[in-house]
Amino acid sequence: MKTSTAHPWLRLSLPLVANVLLGIPAVVPAFMLWYFAANWPLASLGWTDREPTENDGVLPWVMVATPIFILFGLIWWLVNRPFRRRTELPPGRYWLLSAAATALPTLTLIIISLGRN
Prior knowledge:
The protein is mostly helical. The chain has helices at 8-23, 27-39, 41-44, 59-86, 91-116. Helix 1 (8-23) runs antiparallel to helix 4, helix 1 (8-23) crosses helix 5 and helix 2 packs across helix 4 (59-86). The model has no long low-confidence stretch (mean pLDDT 90).
């Protein structure tokens, strides 16, 4: 069995940096998910208002968003799988930390946009 000579902070910081960088293009699927949720399920519950010009229905959004979600999820999983094997974190903690690091750019944009209003 090979032992890694890398510092423990390096074995954790590389996946964090990779996930933050993956979070930059993840802004697109996150926006698509919010747009879909705000216009259909949340609007049906009365929690949001529908976009007045959105009259195509839900099918075009499902057809466009599903391949984007699958592609991004696959890329995210393929990038994180080798990192997960090299860290000493338990699997649940690693995947939660990776998801949080990926969400960081989207959350930063949300905070910036809320500050401008």
